[in-house]
Amino acid sequence: EVLRACVCNIFENKISEAKKTFPAVIRALKSKDSRLAMCEELGSHVKKNQVMLEHQQFDLIVRLLNAALQDDSDIDMYGVAAAILPLAEAFGRKLSRGVTQFAYTQIQDH
Fold first, then answer.
1. Do residues 41 and 18 make contact, with C-beta atoms less than 8 angstroms apart?
2. Which of 7, 35, 87, 98 lies 20 to 30 A from 50 at CA?
3. pLDDT at res. 78
4. pTM for this structure?
């Protein structure tokens, strides 16, 4: 429930509210069930193929994706990396006119 509330706050651009629960969400992502639930919750906010976010929203989403990948095993037996890939392609932010940065550019180390 904390995860869902945090993600909703991010998408409603209530960044200060999201930041209050963010550390608890990051800790919760150590569990495979939480990582998969996060993927489902983020996926529910993808209406079309792309979601353009404000800079702070984008940064928090990327931190969630990185935390979920960080705690996944080398063998992606739970499908977390596979679930994150379409999300990383969907979430982006405008850097300047005509230039969009997508989340996958921030999670390439995994």
1. no
2. 35
3. 65
4. 0.88
Cβ neighbours for 38, distance < 8 A, ≥ 6 positions apart: 3, 7, 25, 29, 64, 68
Q: At what angle do helices 55-70 and 80-90 cross, to 10 degrees?
A: 160
pLDDT at 19: 96
Q: Say if residues 65 and 87 touch (Cβ distance below 8 Å).
A: yes
Q: How confident is the model at residue 27 (pLDDT cuts 50, 70, 90)?
A: very high
Name the pLDDT band for 48 (thresholds 50, 70, 90): confident
Strand, helix or coil for residue 61 = helix
- Residue 47 in tokens: 């209406």
∠ CA(91), CA(6), CA(50), 5° rounding? 15
DSSP 103: G
- What is the rounded distance in angstroms from the CA atom of residue 100 to the CA atom of residue 92? 6
